[in-house]
Known about the structure:
Layout: E1 2-6, H1 14-26, E2 32-36, H2 42-54, H3 60-76, H4 83-101, H5 109-117, H6 119-134, E3 139-141, H7 161-176, E4 180-184, E5 187-189, E6 195-197, H8 203-213, E7 218-223, E8 244-246, H9 247-255, H10 266-272, E9 276-280, E10 289-292, E11 302-315, H11 324-336, E12 343-346, E13 350-356, H12 359-369, E14 374-387, H13 391-398, E15 402-408, E16 412-418
Parallel strand pairs: 1-2, 1-7, 2-4, 3-4, 7-9, 8-10
Antiparallel strand pairs: 5-6, 9-10, 11-13, 11-14, 12-13, 14-16, 15-16
Helix pairs in contact: 2-3, 2-5, 4-6, 7-8, 8-10
Bound molecules: aspartic acid and magnesium ion.
Amino acid sequence: MKVFKFGGASVKDADSVKNMTSIIEANISDQLVVIVSAMGKMTNAFEAVLQKLIDEEDHTEALQYIKDFHFGIISDLGLSGNQQLHQEINTDFETIDNELARFSSSMGYDFIYDQTVSFGEIFSSRIVAAYLGTRQIKTTWLDARKMVKTDNIHRQALVDWGATQNIIRSQVSQHTDSSVVLTQGFIGSNAKFNTTTLGREGSDFSAAIFATSLNAESVTIWKDVPGVLNADPKKFPDTVLFDQLPYKEAAEMTYYGASVIHPKTIKPLAQKGIPLYVKSFENPHANGTLINECVIPNLAPAIIHKGKQTVISFKISDFSFINEQHIHLIFEHINRNHLTINLMQNSAISFTICIDDNPIKREQLRMALKDDFLIYYNEGLEMITIKNYNQATIDSLMWGKQIIIEQRSRNNFQMVYKF
Ligand code: ASP
Ligand code: MG
């Protein structure tokens, strides 16, 4: 059995849905479990609806945009006459309306987010399933909210592996002999059956969850890039495609911010030795990148760029030195706010962290620690990590930048800078 994951760009319009269908058709002799993300930029569009709600502005138009987008694709795919599809999607929109109407600030943004934004994946999978039907591909549509069980941390839910694996095995296996199983990435539910989500771009991780639960032969992530490149082609000229990468290298690249694969994807696959292919949906016959257990000497330097960074420095007000107790206290509050540190550095009188820009959490952290430390912060910075660096790459990337933090180990070079 193979798991295929198609992201937003591969289902962004009718033509891309048709292209995805051809890829499925070409692989129909394998047992296939297909995971889809929301179409195009629909997750962002849902976030825009919620922003209106938070700002107490009218969200009708923002929601109408989402409706028009999906019904536009339905019509372009020739599915306008599909009564069942229309009914399902209209019912989903009623659910969304009800969720938005019952929103109160005590409910929490993260909760309402999961109850509504998750429909991006539901719509996408319903439309794709209906279209596969018109192409005589027997498809079983399954609801990932009923299979991926998580805790209660909305928008960043942690998977309950035991429960999830049992459900996936019992729900999916029975259908893969006779049909393509189609389900959604990104979404799941907690013990109370409230919808949860796994974090932005989490559909790759969903593919890994399904693949490991089903002991799949491989996972393929179909993308709008030829595979894993050594740098973002939108930011750097002359990129190199990795033909093959060890799990460890790929996992570390995602940790440092390479957005080609969701960071949580590699670990479960590596633990089971399931190979991961990253391939171009525009050029499905090209090899792409194979990530597996291997040793590759002299890997090209990988340049990973991460924007929207905040550097926060904690200093002791009476000029005593930073000690372990201070660091312990800082970490306690970082953990309490579910913040992730991208880089850290300490000196005699200060401890510095770099995190993703998040003014709300930064403020919570500052309020919690302001009596113990003098706190300075700097937002809107950028970070570059070079894995397997060489001096020439460092020199060319540092040129002309105002460096705020610089750090190197044997394999990695990192810098945070103003631009
Ligand atoms: N649709 C979700 C997002 O855009 C999940 C995904 O694409 O993987 O973040
Ligand atoms: Mg996406």
